[in-house]
Amino acid sequence: MTWTGVADVVAAACILLGALLALIAAIGVVRMPDLLSRMHAATKPQVLGTVLVMAGVGLRLRDLSVVGVLVLIVLLQMATSIVASHMVGRASFRAGQVRHDLLVIDELSSEPAQDEPRGAP
């Protein structure tokens, strides 16, 4: 088997694994109970899935200009999804759409903490 055949097999595996992670992210958005859990389920596997799909496409096409564009796509995806999920989480907290019974630590509330454990003793 030549190196192009090996690269094609690795590219197919990356694309399939990335698509599986995107499917897991979609299922997590539907199945999670509250907004913050849905955002976590949507951003974490979705970004890794995008990285894997772009790596698979880069391995399959093997063109330096295409790989440069794919790296740019991955970097922008990583930067924007983190900032967007943070802003949506803060806006939903301020709008009162967060279930406070599911929060372990509430750092955004104006109420004083009730002796919550804050890490290792």
From TrEMBL:
- Keywords assigned by UniProt? Membrane, Transmembrane, Transmembrane helix
Native organism is Nocardioides hwasunensis
Q: Does the keyword Thylakoid apply?
A: no
Which InterPro entries does its entry note?
PhaG_MnhG_YufB
Signal sequence, start to end: none
Descriptive protein name:
Monovalent cation/H(+) antiporter subunit G
Tell me if Chaperone is a UniProt keyword of this record: no
Quote the PANTHER family the UniProt record gives: ANTIPORTER SUBUNIT MNHG2-RELATED (PTHR34703)
